Structure formats: structure tokens, C-alpha cells
Amino acid sequence: MKHAKKHRVTRKLVQSGSADSAIGSFDYMIYTDRRARVVKLKWYYGKGLTMTVPWKARFPSIETIVLKKSEWLKHCFEEESRLMNQSTLSNLGVSKKVPYMGQVLPVRIYGPPKKAAEINLHEDELHLVGSQDVDEVIETHLIKWLIRQSRLVLCPIVDRIALAMNVPVRLITIRNQRTRWASWSSSKTISLNWRLITAPPSVIEYVVIHELTHHRHPNHSKEFWKAVSGTCPDWQNGRSWLINNSHLLHYYRPVNHRG
Ligand SMILES: [Zn+2]
Question: How far apart are CA 227 and CA 213, in angstroms?
Fold first, then answer.
């Protein structure tokens, strides 16, 4: 007979859907949580509203929230569109500027269109040779280049740090996650978001160290952070860069509802 390990669920999704407000419609999720003492609202950019309520307690309807918290919701909507416009990865073709390893590289376009356009990195600018002079086409070339570069640049960094930390990495995957910069799985796979290539080298190192530390410390425990700061004294700067640039992921810092 199988003995299931007793596992108490601490958080459960009780309702989700889409709601309308005067400013626009948004997605929402309502969770019941054993640790929650009061109703809490959080706005996740790109994801919408999350409401956490005390375990099995009655909770306000989403219509009530829309009515009572309209000012706060308006603020969330405005902040979201401000951050969306700031996303430097969504208008590369128009701006002709590429964020790359903590720098911003201007793009120069050369020559008549060819079947296979080329991109070359020259000192601190990018030369795009043989592309059509159409913003969307240019953007596609630049994004493809960034993804290719991310593999070339990030993999050797992982190899070097894994060796130094004595972590057996089985696989490095470069992914197009919309929600996170990186992750580590128990199958010894490190997944890195290609958008990390926009970050300064010290930030990339922090991310790799952070993920590889999860090999020995799966959770963000005190011991985990102690180990991270031991390997990467500059971890706090790395962490703030990721938070301040999370608009690059189309997924933003949650905004806590205050008051
Ligand atoms: Zn982590």
C-alpha cells in the first residue's frame, strides 16, 4: 500500500477570470491562503490582479474591488503602460539601438538588401549589412542576433562558474520565458532567459551564481543567501538591476496595495 506523505496545502486558487473596470479589463486570480490574516491585493504587471484572502474566509467580489479600489487600479494601469513603453526590446527597429551587456549599441545599416543579412559587432556599435530598411525587418534581425549572442556569451559563463562552484550542470537551456530571468531544476538544468544578454556582465554572473547555488539550497533560505553573498559579494546590485529592468521581460514587479 502506498503511504502518501501528509502534505497540507497552504494556498489554493479559488477563483479566476477577467473583470471589467472603467479603465479597461484585466485578469484576476483569487487565492485562499492559510498564512493570510487579511485580504491582500497585488497587481502583477502583465498578469493582472491577485487577491489573497484568509483561508476559507468570505471575500469581496471582484465587482466590489473594482468599485472600491478604482483609484489604485487606475494607478496600476498607468504604471503598466508607462513600463510597456519603456521596454527597450520592443522598438529596436525604430530606435536602432540595442541593449547589450549593460551598454546600448547604436545600429548602422549598410548595403543593398541581400538574402541573408549579416550583423557584426564592431567595437561598440552594430553593423547590419544587407537588410531591408524596414523597422520590423530590422527588429527581427536584431532580436535574432541577440538570441544567438546570448547562447554564445552565456554558456561559457555558466561553464566557468559551475567549475568554480563545483556544481554538476547537465544542461544549459536558453529560453524565451516571459516571467523569469533564469531557473534551476533538480535535473541539473539551468535555464537562462535570452534577454539576460542585455544585462551587464556582473549581473549575468550574479544570476548564474544564484541559480547554481540552488543546487545545494533549493529554497531562498538564510543559508541560500549566505552562500550567494559568499560567492558573489555584489549580489545586491545584481538583484536590483533585475528588478529595475524587469520590464524587459514583459513581466513586472508586483505593486502592493497599500491602505
Ligand atoms: Zn532563486
Answer: 7
